[in-house]
Amino acid sequence: MLDGRNESYCLCASPVGVLKIERVEQGISAVRFLGENTISEMEYTDPMHPLLQQAVRELGEYFSGRRQVFTLPLALEGTPFQHRVWEALRKIPYGSTCSYGEIAAAVGNPKASRAVGMANNRNPLPVLIPCHRVIGTDGRLVGYGGGLDIKKKLLALERGKTRER
User: Pick the catalytic residue: 10, 12, 98, 131?
Assistant: First the structure.
């Protein structure tokens, strides 16, 4: 929760709607989808904070097809299992997908597909931690905190189908 001390945020437009990027002292703490509302210019609580500027730059590069890996410091709060899942998600290559079962196996618990789904659902940093790359075992797009339309857009972008020039 932002309390105004060592925390700040910015809003930025993206091809999937307005994003709210939150940061704490240790790093980026959340990316939230705010919907298709338009904003005329960037909104910052701390416009000069270099971490927010870096986040906007890296996300812009991602959405334009020029960035495949994020270098931002992240500030994640979660259980040890969630952290293992989120780390496994970060290893899914750009433009690729894998199943919930594959992630469960990667974190050492092959029967934990549902728990992986719950960890994905609680991912506070969608896009930066690419939970959109996780699909059903049968290849169907299932579950995404930002909605399946955004998941489809992100996967299409990574497959080079909707790159902005």
Answer: 131
